[in-house]
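User: Please run a holo structure prediction.
Assistant: Happy to. Please share the sequence and the ligand.
User: Here you go; the ligand is zinc ion.
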Amino acid sequence: MPIFEYVCHDCHHGFETLVRSGSVPECPQCHSTQLEKQLSVFATAAAAPEAVPAMAGPCGSCGHPDGPGSCALH
Ligand SMILES: [Zn+2]
């Protein structure tokens, strides 16, 4: 089950919560449903691999050992 990070628009409380499909998450502090969804750690890594130095290989994009341009995708 996915865990999402939210920041409450009303009280600016930040929290993580499990979100079941069909249910609306609410702020645990003021019970508002006016929430702003934050990017999860996984979503951020997938969208911007170059922002994660530990995962960057010679290719710069996919980590192909032969260097930039060697792999089929890049
Ligand atoms: Zn709140």
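The chain has one helix and three strands.
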